[in-house]
Write a structure and sequence with these properties.
The chain has 219 residues and is of the alpha/beta class. The protein has one domain: Rossmann fold. Strands 1, 2, 3, 4, 5 and 6 form a six-stranded parallel β-sheet that branches. The C terminus is likely disordered.
């Protein structure tokens, strides 16, 4: 935890041990094959919007963790404006998930929300222990972010109705990995009691076995 400047110079007034992450939902979906993912993304966006509303009622902060579409000179507001005003395929998603003024955002250069970003610092100041990870795509950026969160000892929740991939099969495979390997709770968002997540202690992670011991056991 930060030793000084507990409010990050006044810029992080929230403190909650649960944070809701929205991965790449501010997205123009202007790429080959996006029509297919758009079909699944609309129901996902409605589920995330409902989840975000419930999170706000519990004072759980929302963090948009978003790609900058390769435009290093762009800011998050310009990405939102592009998705809302330029007639892009992703407009219906962004209309449902438009950020509120008190939401946080992190721009990422690669798949994981933790790679070369300030997400670690923000979550430290929020004092988050449990992350609810949602968004696009389940088998890429959501999976990579969940993996990095697991290595940092966060509790992980990935509601299965709040993430999609190019195909349902790809999404189910990614969810299976997150549940089995990363110990993620993948229940639908409607079955998650947000209040019960607050104050939940980090789960003890199994320690990796020495390679020689593992070989001896399996040999």
């Amino acid at each position: 935890m930060p030793a000084k400047n507990e409010d990050l110079h006044g810029m992080v007034p929230d403190e909650c041990d649960v944070a809701l992450l929205l991965i790449d939902v501010i997205n123009d979906l202007e790429f080959p094959g996006s029509e297919q993912i758009l079909e699944y993304a609309l129901p996902m966006a409605r589920a995330i919007a409902d989840l975000k509303k419930r999170a706000r009622q519990q004072n759980i902060p929302t963090v948009y963790v978003n790609d900058n579409f390769g435009r290093w000179q762009s800011d998050f507001n310009r990405v939102i404006e592009h998705c809302l005003q330029d007639g892009v395929k992703g407009k219906p998603i962004v209309e449902l998930l438009r950020p509120d003024n008190d939401d946080y955002f992190v721009l990422k250069p690669k798949h994981s929300g933790f790679f070369s970003t300030n997400l670690d610092i923000l979550l430290d100041y929020l004092k988050a222990k449990t992350l609810i990870i949602t968004g696009l795509a389940g088998n890429i950026c959501v999976l990579f972010t969940a993996n990095d969160a697991y290595m940092r000892d966060f509790n992980i929740v990935v509601p299965k109705d709040c993430t999609v991939s190019n195909t349902p099969e790809d999404n189910e495979h990614a969810l299976d990995i997150m549940q089995q390997v990363l110990k993620a709770d993948i229940r639908p968002s409607t079955e998650i009691d947000l209040k019960s997540l607050i104050g939940r202690a980090p789960e003890e992670k199994p320690q990796p076995q020495d390679a020689g011991q593992q070989f001896a056991r399996n040999g």
